[in-house]
Design a protein that fits this description.
Length: 217
């Protein structure tokens, strides 16, 4: 093994670790928010993931998005668009965290901030879908994709399409009256939670924590 290969190998492992960390945060966030809120504020599920900003889990919500943003800032891939997309996603994540959703009985200022929150959150989810559907599926043109790579690509497609479907369904649910039977089941929360979990799975797979290529010996 050459002198340069050892640090390069360590760098690759560290980078894969960052991807896995993003995946773990994404997959665990909905569960942490729900159980944390039940522990500190009592039972009940909020109307959306963003509504946990107005509970005892505010710091966890903001801190998780900021951690994801930091990891995304360090993202690099095959070309410049990967880096640009990572920085945009980081910006949307920070905006989602620091421009909170409107609380119950909001003031005019809180309503305006809530609109910015919706824009940032939508941009964030769309960017995550772009990661899964486009960037993660890239393959070195000089190499033939392995069977494991093709399997990972299939997972990315499912995750990306799933995120987009969740976005569309959220928009449809938002058109329903608050008094409808569906709205009482917190559908936005469940759809956002599913989208975040799918985002986490795609990054967890990208970090090759699972479905990684077989090592040739």
């Amino acid at each position: 093994m050459s002198i340069l290969s050892k640090p390069n190998h360590s760098l690759v492992l560290s980078y894969l670790g960052l991807r896995r960390a993003i995946g773990i945060i994404g997959m665990s966030l909905p569960f942490v928010l729900v159980f944390g809120k039940m522990l500190f504020d009592g039972p009940g599920i909020e109307s959306s993931i963003s509504s946990y900003y107005h509970t005892a889990m505010r710091d966890v919500f903001v801190g998780s998005l900021c951690a994801i943003a930091v990891f995304l800032l360090s993202y690099w891939g095959y070309d410049r668009i990967d880096s640009i997309t990572g920085k945009l996603a980081a910006l949307w994540a920070v905006g989602t965290a620091f421009f909170p959703a409107s609380p119950l009985n909001p003031s005019p200022e809180q309503i305006l901030i809530g609109k910015f929150h919706s824009i940032f959150a939508l941009s964030f989810f769309l960017t995550l879908a772009f990661f899964a559907l486009v960037l993660f599926r890239k393959t070195n043109p000089e190499q033939t994709p392995t069977s494991r790579k093709l399997t990972r690509n299939s997972i990315y497609v499912v995750c990306g399409i799933g995120i987009l479907v969740c976005i569309v369904l959220i928009m449809m649910v938002e058109l329903l009256p608050v008094s409808s039977s569906i709205s009482r089941l917190s559908p936005v929360f469940w759809l956002e939670a599913l989208a975040i979990i799918l985002f986490g799975i795609s990054w967890f797979v990208k970090g090759k924590a699972i479905v990684k290529d077989e090592v040739k010996v």
